[in-house]
Amino acid sequence: MQSLPKTLADDVARNLVMVARLIDEDPEGAYGYSKVALRLASRVAAVREAAGFAAYANQKYSEALAEFRAARRMTGSVELWPVMADCERGLGRPEKALDMAGAPEVHKLDKAGQVEMRLVAAGARRDMGQLDAAIVTLQSPELASNSVQPWTARLRYAYADALLAAGREGEAREWFAKAVEADRDGGTDASDRLAELDGVDFVDALDEGEGESEETGTEAETPDGDDDKD
């Protein structure tokens, strides 16, 4: 944003900060701030990228794809390639996502980007009902590795979920457990999925308390009823 006047740059920066702050917990709010930033500085690549992610978070896939393409034209970077492919999935075009997964751009991605592309490709296979192909797609050195990387939990989770969808429950349980081991920040619900497979039921303490109160109230009314009968 160095090309912008300082006051304008500050305004744009404030809106981008709000996009980053809200995008997980309040996607609609983040989207609103991204539109303001876009109106102020549509020729800035960072603004187009932020607008793309905000639209993506709100499942506005056509709009997100247009913004990601604009950002890519401005920077020449392939970093957004996996999320662009996932937008194609969102638009109901899994075949296009698979074409992108086999494109030369994938080889230019860093390791995290390549893993993300693998996740998108597996998702596209599942969209097409190709469960076995999705499982094979996820099988990789990154999946087999014992080291924990930022992408490890999501990769293991996706593999477990694909196994479960294919009816391979025993293997799915094993990989959900491995996902739990790698999920240090609780980014997935792997622990819940594992508990579900193990038949563990969680009871809401508040609901349980309310139930006890109702039972207590019923018992308190019983003596009065007995007195009336006498």
TrEMBL record:
Residues 206-230 are annotated as: Disordered. It comes from the Bacteria. This is Tetratricopeptide TPR_4.
